[in-house]
Design brief:
single chain, 8 strands, Rossmann fold, ProC C-terminal domain-like fold, 2 domains, alpha/beta, elongated, 8-stranded mixed beta sheet
């Protein structure tokens, strides 16, 4: 691809553009952005030294690949706006709940790829899942896959799994933030300074995640490795096991998935 354009330039689009710029995946002068919030757009495009566009037509005419990063509820309006200029373009959507078919029904001469990224992409620790449309080519998938690798990790899956992906990794950071915060609050209650307790909790979560990723060890085996019989960890684990936390976490992910399904109808 010679040029990439962003329709919508909020926090996630900015994170993606920043990853592309910092990795030199594309030259700055080959990246374009359009957003209805002109003030934010001007600030962020100047910061990244990329091009801001005044309207959709300008952006579409200057870009080979278009990344749609607006709110899902305006997707029909966005599709209608880009349709006159979308022939033979690669359209990349990161909108939760919006199926590839929604784009392919209207943009019949475009190639569609759907991506579910997550917010840790902002610190290059994102998890992105890529789904290929019926007309997308191998070169399209390769372009998108390599682009999102600059933001963390990326995998390709069939779109039938995307709602589960949304629930586990797309929305997942919010659930982990909640758990990290509650553990930190417990530490604060026990006498730790607030900032210290939060750092302890967050770094421990980061380290635990890296242990799983880098050692490829099953979580249950890692639990056993850190748990001494009748010790401190065993006492804490007993509380978790005897609570409803397993049911609560399952319902959290399940309800999120169901909402993603509803958004796609």
């Amino acid at each position: 691809m010679n040029a990439l354009g962003f329709v919508g330039f909020g926090k996630m689009a900015y994170a993606i553009a920043k990853g592309v710029v910092n990795s030199s995946y594309l030259n700055n002068d080959k990246i374009f952005a359009y957003d209805i919030n002109k003030e934010f757009l001007d600030i962020k495009t100047k910061e990244l030294k990329i091009n801001s566009c005044h309207d959709i037509k300008e952006l579409m005419n200057k870009s080979d690949a278009i990344l749609i990063a607006t709110k899902p509820f305006v997707v029909n309006e966005v599709i209608n706006e880009i349709a006159p200029y979308a022939d033979n373009k690669l359209i990349i959507s990161i909108l939760a709940g919006i199926p590839i078919k929604r784009y392919e029904d209207s943009l019949v001469n475009s190639r569609i790829i759907r991506v579910m990224p997550n917010t840790p992409a902002m610190v290059n620790e994102g998890m992105s899942v890529i789904c290929r449309g019926s007309k997308a080519q191998d070169s399209d998938t390769d372009f998108v896959y390599k682009m999102f690798l600059n933001l963390g990790k990326a995998i390709c899956l069939d779109e039938t799994l995307i709602n589960a992906v949304t629930a586990v990794s797309g929305s997942g950071p919010a659930f982990y933030y909640y758990i990290i915060d509650k553990i930190a609050q417990a530490g604060e209650y026990l006498g730790l300074p607030k900032d210290v307790s939060l750092e302890l909790s967050a770094q421990t979560a980061l380290g635990a995640a890296k242990m799983i990723m880098e050692t490829k060890t099953a979580p249950n085996d890692l639990i056993k490795a850190v748990t001494t019989p009748n010790g401190t960890t065993a006492e804490g684990n007993k509380v978790l096991i005897e609570s409803d936390i397993e049911k609560v976490l399952f319902e959290t992910v399940n309800k999120t998935c169901q909402r993603a399904i509803e958004l796609g109808k």
